[in-house]
Amino acid sequence: MNSLFDLARSLSHHEDIVNLRDHHRSHRDIVSFSNRHFYRGRLRIATDHDSLNRPERAAPAVRWIDVRGKVTRPPVAGR
Fold it and tell me: Would you say residue 16 has pLDDT above 70?
């Protein structure tokens, strides 16, 4: 399966491609996926884990809110 990155890379010249070298914002466990699959392990993960804003331990990091209603898709232009 090709990614959007692979498609963009196939449409550009090799000398025009600029890769991210350092990553500073996300936890190492999250960035490691992108590093392995898109950067071939060349991304340097420089996140300062002590400065990350973390949710309070008592509160869940993700919540599901069930919203009932009717889905209405907008009309497609030209049809």
Answer: yes
**CA distance to 51, 58, 61, 67, 79, per residue, from 33 (Å):** 21, 27, 20, 32, 41
**Rounded distance between C-alpha atoms, residue 45 and residue 6, angstroms:** 22
C-alpha 28/C-alpha 51 separation (Å) is 13
Structure tokens at 55: 């949710």
The H or E element that residue 68 is part of is none
The model's pTM: 0.45
Q: 23: which strand partners?
A: 45
